Amino acid sequence: MSNLVFKAFNSETGLWEDKSIHNPDLISHAGAKASIYQAGHVQLTSALDSESEVLAPTAKALKTVFDSVGVHVNEKDIHLTQTQIDTINLVPTLQAEIKALQAEVQALKGQTPTE
C-alpha cells in the first residue's frame, strides 16, 4: 500500500516535519483535481467574479463578498441587515402564494392540484 507523504508544521518544535497518511480513501484521489463530481485537490482563488466549479474561494474572497452584502460573520453568529431578515421572513408567504397560483392554474386546466 502506498502512502501520501506531506509536510506538517509542529507547533511544539516550530519545525516542518514529514508526515504520511495510510488511508487508501485519501490516497486514491491524491493526484486528482476536485470538481462537483469528483473528490480531489482544489485550487484556491480570490476572484470575486469566477463561475468555476473547480476552484475554491479563499477566506479573503468570502469576507469581501459578505462585507459587500452586509453579512458580518464572527465566531458566534451571523448578523443580517433588516432588509435581509425581511426577505427571509417573506419566503413562507411567497411559497404559499406560489402554491395557490399553481392550484388556480391547474383548476383552470381542469386538473387536480399536486403537492
From TrEMBL:
Pfam families with a match to the protein in the record: Phage_fiber_2 (PF03406)
Protein name according to UniProt: Phage tail protein
Annotated source species: Lysinibacillus zambalensis
Lineage: Bacteria, Bacillati, Bacillota, Bacilli, Bacillales
